Amino acid sequence: MNEKTEELRDIFTNVTDGEETVTESQTATRGSLEKDERTIDERLENVIAQMRERYAFETTLTDEELIRVAKGFYDDVSDEDLASELEVSSEDVFDARLSLHLVESEADAPDIDLAAIRERDAADLDALADEFDASEPQIRRARRVAAAQDESRAANDRYRDEFDSILGDSELTERIASDVREDGLEDATEGMETDVSL
What we know:
By secondary structure, this protein is mostly helical. Among the domains are: 39-101 and 157-173; 104-154. It is built from ten helices and no strands. The protein has helices spanning 3-15, 40-54, 63-74, 79-86, 90-99, 105-108, 114-119, 125-131, 136-154, 158-189. Helix 2 (40-54) packs across helix 3, helix 2 (40-54) runs antiparallel to helix 10 and helix 4 (79-86) packs across helix 5. The radius of gyration is 29 Å and the shape is elongated. Residues 17-37, 179-198 are annotated as: Disordered. This is Conditioned medium-induced protein 4.
């Protein structure tokens, strides 16, 4: 050992309290688009708990059932199919979706101008029904959809955005992971003989 090397060794052993070697454990972590360590269900449950605290929920469904409703909404499962699965009425599922701000104006109130509905008095159901060539129950439903949208907008669509983030990201993560696996397999097998006779 030359003089400089000895000097550096002495400095190293002084700094490391006399240890001759330093070993730091390393863990291999897998990359993920999902930065939150909680499961999707835990994250959904957290959003639902926040909403229950802030709003008077008009639903008798449990948190687990509400999680299923949210997932079903993002999977394009109809209210009727969700109702059958949860053994509740489709109206219960509709109420739950409104409570969670999960509405689609085109599907939930087709052919009805929700902006016009908002501006009109609730006592004017007959006139609205005539104007939109709809039944009174359809107008009542449209007013409920409009009210749910207003409630969501008053919260800057915060909860809807959280649902989008949780459930939209999970689909994206699965799709990207699948693409990565396929690309990796393609790269690994590139140039290999595939015409093998057994």
